[in-house]
Structures are given as C-alpha cells and as structure tokens.
Amino acid sequence: MSRIAYVNGQYVPHGEAAVHIEDRGYQFADGVYEVIPIVNGKMIGEKGHIDRLWRSMNELKMDAPMDPGPMKIVMREVLRLNKVETGLIYIQVTRGVAPRDHPFPDDAISSLVMTAKKTSLEAAEKKAEKGVGVITVPDIRWERCDIKSVSLLPNILAKQQAKEAGAYEAFQYDEDGNITEGSSTNAWMVDQDGTLITRPTNNSILAGITRAELLELLEQKNMKVELRAFSVEELRNAREVFLTSSSAYVQPVVEVDGKPIGNGQPGSISSELRHIFKDFMQN
Ligand SMILES: Cc1ncc(COP(=O)(O)O)c(C=O)c1O
What we know:
Layout: E1 4-7, E2 10-13, H1 24-28, E3 31-39, E4 42-43, H2 46-59, H3 68-81, E5 87-94, E6 111-118, H4 121-130, E7 132-138, H5 153-164, E8 169-173, E9 179-182, E10 186-190, E11 196-198, H6 209-220, E12 225-227, H7 232-236, E13 240-245, E14 249-256, E15 259-260, H8 268-282
Parallel strand pairs: 7-8, 7-14, 11-12
Antiparallel strand pairs: 1-2, 1-6, 3-4, 3-5, 5-6, 8-9, 10-11, 10-13, 13-14, 14-15
Helix pairs in contact: 6-8
The chain binds pyridoxal-5'-phosphate.
Pyridoxal-5'-phosphate binds near residues 155, 185 and 209.
C-alpha cells in the first residue's frame, strides 16, 4: 500500500508530496513540528502535543493553519489512509510561501504538512531490553530550545556524532557542564542513592510530552523525582541512565562516552519505568 501525505488541504501520494521552493520552512527553517506516537490505534498524549504545537506557533507569532478540531480530524484521516495502528504521525507547520525576505511576510498563509508511518513496538522492546549507548557533546543550540522548531541543524550534527561513535544518542551539555537533553530525547539518571533526577523545563530544553507523562505516572505511584540539572560527571557515575521520547518511549542507557553504566545492563528502575510506560500506552 502506498503512503499518503497531507499537504495544504490535499491527500497526495507520499512520493509526489511537495511544497513550494519559497516555503519559509525550506528557505529559513521558519517552522514548527510535532511527532505523536500511536500504539494499537491509540494516540498517546494528543492533548499535550497539540497544546505544545500551539505554544510553539504562538512563541513565533505564526498563524495556525487551522483550528485544533479540524487538525485532529486531518490527523485521524492521515492515520486511516496509511493504515497506521502503531506508529508515528508527523505534523509540520511553516509560515508559508513568500518571496525570500527575512522579516515575517504580511500575507503568507501557514503551510500544513502531515505524514504517518508504521513502527514496531517489538523492535522498540528489543532495543530497550539491550539498552543503548550515548555520548556527551557541547550544546551549541540557541536559547529557545523550548520551541519545537524544525531548525534542527545542531541536533542533527549531535546525532551524527553519536552515530559515528556507535552510540544511539548524544546528550548535550551546557556551559556549566550540566546535561540539557538529547538531540531528540530528554535525559534522566538515577544516582547511587537511587534518586531519580531529570532537568526542570525552561528555555534550555524541550518540554517532552513523554517526560511529562512519565512524571505524572511517577506521581501517581508516589515515586519521588528530583527536578534539577545534573552534570556530565554525575551522569558518568550514575547508577542508571535512561532517555524518553515519543519514538523511543522509555529507553534504558547502558553506556556513556564508551564506559558502562552500572553493570552495563538496563537498570532495574529504568526497566520498571519502561514497563509502567508501556502499560500506560497499551491501556
Ligand atoms: C530536542 C528534543 N528533546 C526532547 C524530545 C522528546 O520529546 P517528546 O517526548 O515530546 O517526543 C524531542 C523529541 O523530538 C526533542 O526533539
């Protein structure tokens, strides 16, 4: 079955889907996006993702291409046309097409593109059972990492560096030597006393929806979390490390900068949280 994309009001074959060369997303990365997981037909964290998309657009004074209600209808249609039961939906909004000039155009109409793809829960499970490696790299991004912008060049460079080092992800660190977040994930650690730690949200990181959902589940289970920045040094000496995102869910990390964390196996707390999150997605 061929994939179908939504582009500015039309459902078109994925291979033919296109936007104008003067779309400001293409010219300036003047756009925002969301990636929403779907598990067994259930959209996970839809409200959080839609709210964050609107927040990103508002922060950039970008007009919404449509109201949230119609957008949710398009999202469901894209999923239906692509027969996605478990997978991801990608939504991108840009400031639209206008002659190339840096200031906001007066009359451009925001562009909206959506695609959906299938993913395998089993593949994620396998990866999680083994754990992954991360490297640490300087965070060279701008000061508004809270906006989910398509301007991802520093993230791409970090992820490529991880790939070349044989790792899954790059955790970035700020000028104080504290971990901000991964190139496309939020970072967590468990210290030697068993305390769960993740960085509080501000402009230095994206407020991950998976992170927020996991925090809520932890609260429901009366499990304590310390919201504070932690250093590269603390990360390397952690008892456990894991990361969260809409595509990786809760993913144990077993190696940092080539050195094992604990005994080099996914830790018990990370594994428990992975199960808790899986249950939440599947029920
Ligand atoms: C920089 C960054 N941090 C964190 C995340 C995780 O956010 P979420 O859980 O909403 O997918 C992402 C996801 O793409 C990201 O790009």
